[in-house]
């Protein structure tokens, strides 16, 4: 019988038994006691691939979203760090267009003793504190530095479309089934939707897009509601063409 593609790409057979035991214990511990805001979905077929779902942190443009992600442990783990990929489309400086994640703990700052829990917490922190200096998405990095209101609007828009349940949202569907290794614009003035960043800044900006949309809907009369909904739909279409 021909082995399945998931098993063909698995690193289980390449890892020493003692490493597999440690990985199994750590994954079991994570599943039983996951970090706050993170859900763990271990694979029954391949312990070297860990699927997770990260809640978008409050006070950020990602709040309210659920972002699916996976960690892939290579044959040299733990001497070499795992690779991380967002499966949910996200507008973030440190996430590439195919979902690859750029963070120091998965590169030069990796130490074998850090463990998978530390990796997951670091990636969640990246949603709160992006690092434009090591941007994989250069446009997101540039906007974060030069025009935070536009960056927050774009990030919020993709969160609503791809990371939320309900009409128009894909609730964390993958960016593309072929992305990563396979184991087993908005038109208009964004400042009208988001307040400019200031001393109180990130929390207000994180929820600004939702607040503005809610205010627009509830303050309109019957005719105005239809007009506002049409304008919002047109804005989203224009924004998506720019992404």
From TrEMBL:
Domain UBC core: 18-164
Organism: Merluccius polli (Benguela hake)
Biased composition (Low complexity): 195-229
Function recorded in the entry: Accepts ubiquitin from the E1 complex and catalyzes its covalent attachment to other proteins. Catalyzes 'Lys-11'-linked polyubiquitination. Acts as an essential factor of the anaphase promoting complex/cyclosome (APC/C), a cell cycle-regulated ubiquitin ligase that controls progression through mitosis. Acts by specifically elongating 'Lys-11'-linked polyubiquitin chains initiated by the E2 enzyme UBE2C/UBCH10 on APC/C substrates, enhancing the degradation of APC/C substrates by the proteasome and promoting mitotic exit.
Region (Disordered): 165-243
Documented EC number(s): 2.3.2.23
Protein's UniProt name: E2 ubiquitin-conjugating enzyme
PANTHER family: UBIQUITIN-CONJUGATING ENZYME E2 (PTHR24067)
Family: Belongs to the ubiquitin-conjugating enzyme family.
Transferase as UniProt keyword: yes
GO biological process: anaphase-promoting complex-dependent catabolic process; cell division; exit from mitosis
Reactions catalysed: S-ubiquitinyl-[E1 ubiquitin-activating enzyme]-L-cysteine + [E2 ubiquitin-conjugating enzyme]-L-cysteine = [E1 ubiquitin-activating enzyme]-L-cysteine + S-ubiquitinyl-[E2 ubiquitin-conjugating enzyme]-L-cysteine
SUPFAM superfamilies for the chain: UBC-like (SSF54495)
Top-level division of the source organism's lineage: Eukaryota
Residues the record marks as active site: 102 (glycyl thioester intermediate)
Gene: ube2s
Keywords carried by this UniProt record: ATP-binding, Cell cycle, Cell division, Nucleotide-binding, Transferase, Ubl conjugation pathway
Basic residues bias: start-end ranges: 230-243
Pathway: Protein modification; protein ubiquitination
Any GO MF annotation of the entry: ATP binding
């Amino acid at each position: 019988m021909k082995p399945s593609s998931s098993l063909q790409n698995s690193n289980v057979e390449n890892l020493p038994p003692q490493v597999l035991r440690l990985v199994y214990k750590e994954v079991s511990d994570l599943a039983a006691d996951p970090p706050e805001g993170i859900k763990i979905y271990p694979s029954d077929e391949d312990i070297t691939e860990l699927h997770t779902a990260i809640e978008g942190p409050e006070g950020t443009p990602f709040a309210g979203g659920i972002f699916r992600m996976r960690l892939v442990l290579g044959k040299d783990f733990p001497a070499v760090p795992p690779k991380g990929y967002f499966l949910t489309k996200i507008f973030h400086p440190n996430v590439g267009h195919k979902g690859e994640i750029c963070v120091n703990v998965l590169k030069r700052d990796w130490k074998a003793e850090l463990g998978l829990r530390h990796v997951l917490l670091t990636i969640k922190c990246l949603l709160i504190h992006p690092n434009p200096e090591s941007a994989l998405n250069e446009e997101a990095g540039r906007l974060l530095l030069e025009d935070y209101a536009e960056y927050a609007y774009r990030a919020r828009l993709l969160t609503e479309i791809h990371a939320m349940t309900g009409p128009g949202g894909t609730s964390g569907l993958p960016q593309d089934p072929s992305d990563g290794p396979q184991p087993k614009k908005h038109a208009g003035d964004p400042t009208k939707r988001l307040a400019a960043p200031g001393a109180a800044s990130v929390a207000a900006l994180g929820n600004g897009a939702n607040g503005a949309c809610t205010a627009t809907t509830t303050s309109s009369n019957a005719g105005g509601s239809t007009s506002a909904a049409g304008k919002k739909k047109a804005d989203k279409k224009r924004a998506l063409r720019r992404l």
